[in-house]
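Title: Comparing notes on inverse folding

I've been comparing how different people in this forum approach sequence design from structure. To keep things fair, I'm posting one structure and asking everyone to reply with a full sequence. Here's the target:
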């Protein structure tokens, strides 16, 4: 059974209509949950990676964590700027994330790299859909934010996939 949407907006002088703000808050809740989820997927990999090129991959995962953590703040601030209430807890993230749960038994650097690449690629695809949704709604600022996030996700995906190319 689908849960009923209960998006309540705070009063705002934001020029977008309440309907558009409400739909953008819903869109951004999904991306906030996904950003929180991916932030901790990268930390899970960072904490547990073993094997060849350990230190390089360990540091890469920490860098990816920092970049993704910045998306959390940017998305949450846009969401609240539209009058929404950010659902940024770990529990809320599990309800809102579009990502599959991260396996807790991965150890090999190659396995972490591949699994994170899957997560980054999946979120990147969802961000593309969000860009289109924001554009159709006429919310250029949310569209721009998601474009920036998408550009960063693609760069991170490049860093992950480069371990397997060539």
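Reply #1:
Here's my take.
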């Amino acid at each position: 059974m689908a849960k009923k949407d209960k998006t309540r907006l705070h009063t705002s002088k934001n020029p977008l209509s309440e309907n558009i703000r409400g739909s953008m808050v819903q869109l951004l809740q999904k991306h906030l949950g996904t950003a929180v989820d991916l932030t901790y997927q990268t930390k899970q990999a960072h904490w547990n990676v073993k094997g060849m090129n350990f230190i390089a991959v360990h540091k890469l995962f920490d860098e990816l964590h920092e970049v993704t953590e910045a998306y959390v703040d940017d998305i949450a601030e846009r969401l609240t700027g539209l009058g929404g209430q950010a659902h940024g807890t770990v529990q809320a993230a599990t309800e809102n994330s579009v990502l599959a749960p991260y396996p807790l038994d991965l150890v090999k650097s190659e396995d972490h790299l591949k699994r994170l690449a899957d997560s980054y690629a999946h979120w990147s695809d969802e961000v593309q859909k969000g860009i289109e949704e924001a554009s159709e709604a006429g919310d250029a600022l949310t569209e721009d934010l998601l474009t920036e996030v998408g550009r960063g996700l693609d760069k991170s995906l490049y860093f992950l996939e480069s371990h397997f190319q060539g």
